[in-house]
Design brief:
Helices cover 24% and strands 28% of the residues. It has helices at 2-14, 126-132, 161-164, 170-183, 185-188, 218-227, 253-263, 282-298, 315-318, 337-347, 374-386, 402-409, 411-417; strands at 31-34, 44-52, 55-62, 66-69, 71-76, 79-84, 94-101, 105-112, 115-124, 156-159, 192-194, 200-203, 209-211, 231-236, 267-271, 304-308, 326-328, 359-361, 391-393, 426-431, 434-440, 446-452, 458-461, 474-477, 482-484, 490-493, 498-504. The strands form five sheets. A nine-stranded antiparallel β-sheet has the order 4-3-2-1-9-8-7-6-5. The longest helix is centred in the middle third of the chain and has 17 residues, at 282-298. Bound molecules: alpha-D-galactopyranose (GLA).
Length: 508
Amino acid sequence: MILRNIAVLLLGALLPLGGAPALGPSNGVAGTWTFSGAPPFPGLRMMQIGVKAGKATGTLTTEWYGPMPMHDLRIQGKVASFGIQNGNPRLPMKTWMATLQGKHQMQVVGDIWEEHVDLVARRGTARDAARLRFQVQPLPALAKLPSDGLAPTPPMGWSSWNRFAEKIDDPTVRRMADLMVSTGLRDAGYVYVNIDDGWQGQRDARGVLQPNPKFPDMKALAAYVHSQGLKLGLYSSPGPRSCAGFEGSYGHVETDAQTWASWGIDYVKYDLCSGEGIFRTPVELQAAYLAMGQALRRTGRPIVYSLCQYGRDRVGRWGRDVGGHLWRTTGDITDEYATMARLGFDRNGDSADAGPGGWNDPDMLEVGNGGMTPEEYRTHMSLWAISAAPLLMGHDLQAMTPETFALLANPEVIAIDQDPKGIQGRCVRKEGAIEIWSRPLADGSVALALFNRGEVEAAVRFEAADAGLAEFLSLRDVWAHRSWETSTATATLRPHGVLFLRARGPHR
Ligand code: GLA
């Protein structure tokens, strides 16, 4: 960040200080160029190009990503071409072109994320440059926050995003809270009611973020949710904008944490979104998450802190240090088997990082949303439970079938997820489409899940050694609630199916 600030200052020094801009070796391309009426994404404010000793540098300043450095800036005739990257390591650099039209206009064309930009910028003055400058915020030095004892087992609850996205509102949240109580889901362990992206409105004159009109009174909503024996969660971003384009916490971290605490918020999901263009190095990224971790601690309110930056920079290694109780390890889940399986089987974090107080989060549940078969949803739940994953339901409780309830509220499956030892299970054997996962539990028994990721039925032989046991004394099918004594173990698994067991026997 410091280096980048210096670069921005240097660039400022290279730019003409108002009045008639010098033309010279930059062919008139150098200077400050301002945009007006640019579309909200990425919210182009200005372009700055400077040339010194034949070397050109520049930035594009946007609402979403702040000042974005131009890469490989070349000026040929009236055209400047440069690379722009929004900080997402998976997106390629895109080439942009700025073409001088007359002396005081530039046509700027390029792509960013899924947006094609084709805009005219006008020559600006030093005063414009000062007015449009992005206020870069200081970050704390890296530090380790001590454990606060929250989330001794993976958090359980419901989140609005998977089913309602931006369409969430106060009455729906209340209905979901009511249904969590009346259906028995609260008593099964699901206590957080989390409002994801889409509650944010504008900041008032003092910079306090107000909810949008769909949430007329957040404090009253929190009181209602608490009166039901539940807890309320909210969502924000360390960047200027959330992923759905709402106001983020950039520059308002302390105020936002204080505001949420004053409303009675119990859980905050902090989603990188536009911050990926601002916190580009691992240190900046950690510091941005630490800033909110520290601010939440300073409120004095116990608030579960959920990091969401899609698993970048080995977040499991530092998630706890910044105050996180869970951290997303993956991109977004969708309601289909292939994505769920990719995240749960292949992309979830290192089991060594998880344990009481800090959990790998392969994303929220899709159970009950209709895009997978009952067998696939059983695999989804079993995989999340053996992985000690947070269980955040993502369906519409108003339309819940008894089958969905049975999948979500099975006490034996939940007991494995919530096992107090908090060891994340892992794959111990793979044969073709078959994966055997094992998880040691607090009472000495072992959760063993046999998964068939293939498209055809498969027979599988498994052994006590898969569970770290010398022999099986008993096996219990936790979905069927049926136990048997056995020494041999074979199973037939349906396509995308699972056999989920609790095994007992002497340890090896
Ligand atoms: C990102 C997150 C999702 C959800 C949306 C909201 O994509 O990964 O879980 O919070 O943002 O916009």
